[in-house]
Predict the 3D structure of the following.
Amino acid sequence: MCFNSTPGGSHVLTRLDRILLVVHDRAEAAERFAALFGARRLAEDASAVLGARRTTLQAGESLIELLTPSGPGPARQFADRWGEGLYGVGFATPSIEAMAARLDANHVPYTVEHGALYLREAPYGMPAVIIQDVHRDPVGDIRSIYEVTNPVPDWRAAADYYTRIFGLEPAHFVPIRSELYGYEGVLTLFDPPHRLDRIEITQTFGGGAMDRFFQKRGPSLYMCYLETDDVPLLEARLDALGLQYSQAEGRPPGTNIFIHPKSLFGMLVGVSKTNFAWLWSGRPDLSGAPEGTPLIH
């Protein structure tokens, strides 16, 4: 695996900071995330860049932005075409000024709003915003959201693009392939082994769920992944709320589930026990998984 590395590229993105979710009813969505993950409401405001009213929640270290269209713009375009679902992702950087300079040098247009850099182009279907990294004490019952999955026509080209514009370090990347779910690609880990945060870039095959999603939508965001100390607690809450989820195949009980998009406003969410995802992220020794657990999901 060979990508074009950039001098000083390590840690230009420190973590996945937030997800952006288009919903019909922000109050209903906020209530669902609070009941399920212990999320807390932080703010109500609006974004002219997104053309949306916004409710911001915190769950674990991560933010969840709930968007409803307020006029023309990306949120309206997404809602008109797809309804509800995962629209975009936010990444944290230690220096917003340095990231702006990197984007300028790579001719990546962006708009500044409230100090954040909203990329105006998403050639591989991942609308992104870059935010100054700040410490947050975790709240609720998850650790963080650490991954978004980005199916694309050519995972190597997408990885090279993200490496170039974000200054990622290819030496940290982990190749991934799943016959079960029908994809191959790469995990662009930002800061291993300290954090799991990454973009999962995939190229789909075989007619499975991710492949069908890609054939319908093209390059886009398919799902996100979060980790928690207590997967059974989330299972119990899902059961109590009558929400749909499934166990990951081949995984020990209490380690890995998938929450159905119908349960979370059009967004598929993977849940892994804290550190368990290292099993397929290049450091199975950190996962705590029983011997014989399959490496690739």
Notes: Residues 33 and 39 are 6 Å apart (CA to CA). The helical segments are 26-37, 74-82, 96-105, 155-166, 209-217, 231-241.
